[in-house]
Amino acid sequence: MMPLHLQLFSLAVLLAFLGWVLRLIRAGQLSLRDSLSWLVSTGVALLFVLFPSLLRALANALQIQVASNALFALAFLYVLWNLLATTIALSQQAVRVRRLTQESALLRAEVEALRKSIAAEGERRLASNS
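^ that's the sequence the OP posted. Answer follows.
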């Protein structure tokens, strides 16, 4: 059984973290899609703190002798999952940046061509009026 002072400290830390994530969402610094994993993982951790028997039952189901080892294994898997999700999002953003850069270069070339044609048209009109 987890000591009461450790359980209360864990509960306070998790609630503070949950409040911080919610504040970031409200401030628009963290999108709802990106915050979902943080909210779910904090909720799961809160369940394990409030009901330590759930962690022991999970450890038994996974045939892990010590519940804290199950917690570390789950934390490691969560970090890997979060790393993969972040890598996917970063990769998608890189593709979008590349596409926008290419579109910007095409538009810049088109604007330059239009400027040249307008300048040539203006010179032609000046020459015909002279």
